[in-house]
């Protein structure tokens, strides 16, 4: 006898389930997909601008705000391919209607941050010796660049110092930048540039220079970029024989970057600034460096190069400066 109540309960559940299935079969199979992926099956009774009145086989009549609805599929319409979240929500809804326990799940969508348009690097090199002579040389550089399809902005700051027998033989700082504007579907570009220089052992105390003009990209592919620039500018010196005088200058530049492989590249440049007010006077800079990454994809690399500065002015007693350097580079 004790088994009969259990049989009655089982029979009652079967009848209830059959009634639910029968109601679901009779009612239209309209679908409402809520924001978040939940899907509800039933019949749309009425639609207004703000709400949808919906008849569900189990939950009864419901009023759903349109702001909470992602999409509506009427009976007979071909439903869109469900997303994984929607398929999971449908399975949970069917399990809840059948009386089965629903396992709570949390979906975390991984968002990949957009890469920064800036590429920066820090370069440092030190060299010292002690014996018959004591020498210490230091060279520090910070550079950053922002490049898009329309523009390129490059900024840098450099410090160089040297001592010999305890006496300072070099103490120089300079900082500047260049801004390029690319013409659409053309190798031509426009540019402006500027630079500040301090040199303890030059005839001047500080020098400011600026200018602009046009450039032309001779080569640009996956391995090589060669750009030439021509323009007009000027320089202003504080201190020294040309204190307060503005010198009009031409600008002629050539920059080369070439990648031999994934880890090795060469960077070279030539800058020539002729004095437009005094024929034969000029200043120029030549540089070249080879850089090798420690491994493929590594942010660290070794850089070895040479740089020479020339100045030919009537009142300048500065000797041409030739530098050899080795640097550790870290990109970020």
Q: Could you please describe the fold and organization of this structure?
A:
The chain is mainly beta. The chain folds into 2 domains: 3-97, SH3 type barrels (Roll); 118-331, Lipocalin. Helix content is 11%, strand content 57%. The protein is built from 2 helices and 17 strands. The protein has a 12-stranded antiparallel barrel with strand order 6-7-8-9-10-11-12-13-14-15-16-17. A 5-stranded antiparallel β-sheet has the order 4-3-2-1-5. It starts with a helix and ends with a strand. The relative contact order is 0.07. Residues 1-5 and 14-26 have low confidence and may be disordered.
Name the CATH class of the largest domain: Mainly Beta
Rounded average pLDDT:
83
Total domain count: 2
- Main β-sheet description: 12 strands, antiparallel, barrel
CATH architecture of the largest domain: Beta Barrel
Name the CATH superfamily assignment of the largest domain.
Autotransporter beta-domain
Question: What is the tally of helical segments?
Answer: 2
Order of helices and strands: HEEEEEHEEEEEEEEEEEE
Number of strands: 17
Q: Strand content of the residues, in percent?
A: over 45%
The dominant shape is: elongated
* First-to-last CA distance: 80 Å
CATH topology of the largest domain: Lipocalin
Give the strand order of the largest sheet, numbering strands 1, 2, ... along the chain: 6-7-8-9-10-11-12-13-14-15-16-17
């Amino acid at each position: 006898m004790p088994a009969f109540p259990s049989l009655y309960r089982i029979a009652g559940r079967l009848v209830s389930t059959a009634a639910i299935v029968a109601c679901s079969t009779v009612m239209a199979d309209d679908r409402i997909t809520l924001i978040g992926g939940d899907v509800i099956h039933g019949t749309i009774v009425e639609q207004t601008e703000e709400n949808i009145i919906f008849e569900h086989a189990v939950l009864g009549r419901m009023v759903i705000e349109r702001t909470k609805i992602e999409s509506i599929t009427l009976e007979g319409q071909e439903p869109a391919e469900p997303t994984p979240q929607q398929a999971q929500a449908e399975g949970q809804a069917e399990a809840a209607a059948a009386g089965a326990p629903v396992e709570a799940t949390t979906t975390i969508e991984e968002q990949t941050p957009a890469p920064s348009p800036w590429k920066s690097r820090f370069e440092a090199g030190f060299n010292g010796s002690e014996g018959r002579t004591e020498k210490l040389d230091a060279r520090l550089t910070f550079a950053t660049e922002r490049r898009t399809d329309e523009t390129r902005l490059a900024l840098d700051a450099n410090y160089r110092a040297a001592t010999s027998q305890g006496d300072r033989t070099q103490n120089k700082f300079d900082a500047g930048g260049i801004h390029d504007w690319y013409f659409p579907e053309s190798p031509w570009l426009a540019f402006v540039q500027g630079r500040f220089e301090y040199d303890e052992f030059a005839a001047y105390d500080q020098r400011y220079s600026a200018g602009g003009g046009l450039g032309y990209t001779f080569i640009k592919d996956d391995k090589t970029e060669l750009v030439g620039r021509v323009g007009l500018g000027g320089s202003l010196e504080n201190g020294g024989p040309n204190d307060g005088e503005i010198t009009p200058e031409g600008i002629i530049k050539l920059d080369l970057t070439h990648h031999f492989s994934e880890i090795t590249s060469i960077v070279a440049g030539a800058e020539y600034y002729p004095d437009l007010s005094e024929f034969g006077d000029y200043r120029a800079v030549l540089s070249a460096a080879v850089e090798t990454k420690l491994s493929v994809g590594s942010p660290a690399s070794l850089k070895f190069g040479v740089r020479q500065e020339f100045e030919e002015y009537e009142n300048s007693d500065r000797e041409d400066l030739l530098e050899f350097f080795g640097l550790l580079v870290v990109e970020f």
